[in-house]
Amino acid sequence: MDKYKVTHRLLRQSIKSLVNRQLTSNNPIYRFISAFPLGNGGRNPQLYRSFGSLATKVERNPSFSSLNSDDLSYFKGVLGEKNVVQDEDRLETANIDWMHKYKGFSKLLLLPRNTEEVSKILEYCNSRRLAVVPQGGNTGLVGGSVPVFDEVIINVGSMNKIIAFDKVSGILVCEAGCILENLISYLDNQGFVMPLDLGAKGSCQIGGNVSTNAGGLRFVRYGSLHGNVLGLEAVLANGDVLDMLGTLRKDNTGYDLKHLFIGSEGSLGIVTKVSILTPPKLSSVNIAFLACEDYLSCQKLLSEAKRKLGEILSAFEFLDSHAMDLVLNHLEGVRNPLSSAVHNFYLLIETTGSDESYDKEKLEAFLLHSMESGLISDGVLAQDINQASSFWRIREDQKH
Ligand SMILES: Cc1cc2nc3c(=O)[nH]c(=O)nc-3n(C[C@H](O)[C@H](O)[C@H](O)COP(=O)(O)OP(=O)(O)OC[C@H]3O[C@@H](n4cnc5c(N)ncnc54)[C@H](O)[C@@H]3O)c2cc1C
């Protein structure tokens, strides 16, 4: 009960702070939001960030402190020398986002190894008014993971342990720095599936996925992280640890605070642990690569696929001809599985079920009907796992 009282008090404070953020910058929560004025080493007092057609002038808030040698000594005392990174090459990478659109000027990257260390460094930064930005795999596409000025970068990548996995319920509890691909492989070995999969899986962290409410290739089947994440642990700006790491699927004990953190892009605190519901792996997987000549047909095909493939539809992905051209021209070893004719749109449909012949028959009947009704102009079904992987490469390797 006490835990809930504390939690509710902290939440009230956090929400109040977020509202006040519009009015004042003298607020610890404020510094988490990297798109707003944060710290600066004095090198770049004004920056412009454009959001669509809007250009936002961003100035460093002078009320934030700059790093000094006492700060470095404190961090080294808490984290150990090697987890306080000042190496220019490593900082260069951490200061630039995936798209190379945003560049910060941080002089310091901290690598905490556990929740207690995250709590200590946040509490310290708060007391010293040092701006911080949480960073995961730095694969976000909107610049949220890189500093604007000289914020201290905090990356929980060293917190990458699997804490527990329950084979009966399928509930995985892990630290926030686990790389998504490692979780996918771990679960695959256990006979389960991560309900989230995306092209950045080799680098992104589950804490970053939660903080961006990432969707990905499994969304059509398993829905959003708001449905799959059962619990979280997070550290607030003042160092307080919020324990919301429940593993109950049906939890109706009141406010569900974890939802505020899902998609909050680090603005409320640093996510340190996650519990997530994972479905069992099913044995029969079929993949079709299709061509469509107009966008309306793609939409109709999606509606039809939901209706006719129902419970076995596990992915429905789309590429236009420009994306396809890029893939074919720039990725080594990738080829168009369809005839050389150019099509306007391409679709990848995957089904996953438990009955090989029934699932295949269902997909084939769907494809035949779609072909006859003119929704698709060409298509091919993967004959083996290698062909299936090559179809997926076309979609997933668009990241390069
Ligand atoms: C090739 C590619 C494919 C992608 N595909 C998809 C897709 O299919 N669907 C989709 O939704 N997105 C997609 N994305 C974007 C997606 O949001 C990110 O890839 C991923 O979810 C971010 O995780 P990350 O660990 O890299 O976080 P980062 O990029 O490091 O950070 C993202 C945000 O989360 C915050 N953050 C990171 N870790 C934490 C933490 N532990 N606690 C609190 N805040 C934190 C950061 O401050 C930042 O605001 C794709 C990106 C790429 C490059």
TrEMBL record:
PROSITE patterns: FAD_PCMH
Record Gene3D superfamilies: 3.30.465.10, 3.30.70.2190, Uridine Diphospho-n-acetylenolpyruvylglucosamine Reductase, domain 2
Residue stretches making up the FAD-binding PCMH-type domain: 102-281
Top-rank taxon, per record: Eukaryota
Cofactor(s) it depends on: FAD
CC annotations in GO: mitochondrion
Zinc-finger in keyword set: no
GO molecular function: (R)-2-hydroxyglutarate dehydrogenase activity; FAD binding
Family annotation (SUPFAM superfamilies): FAD-binding/transporter-associated domain-like (SSF56176), FAD-linked oxidases, C-terminal domain (SSF55103)
InterPro entries, per database record: FAD-bd_oxidored_4_C, FAD-bd_PCMH, FAD-bd_PCMH-like_sf, FAD-bd_PCMH_sub1, FAD-bd_PCMH_sub2, FAD-linked_Oxase-like_C, FAD-oxidored/transferase_4, Oxid_FAD_bind_N
EC number, as in UniProt: 1.1.99.39
EC main group: oxidoreductase
Sorted UniProt keywords: FAD, Flavoprotein, Oxidoreductase
Pfam families linked: FAD-oxidase_C (PF02913), FAD_binding_4 (PF01565)
Descriptive protein name: D-2-hydroxyglutarate dehydrogenase
Organism: Salix purpurea
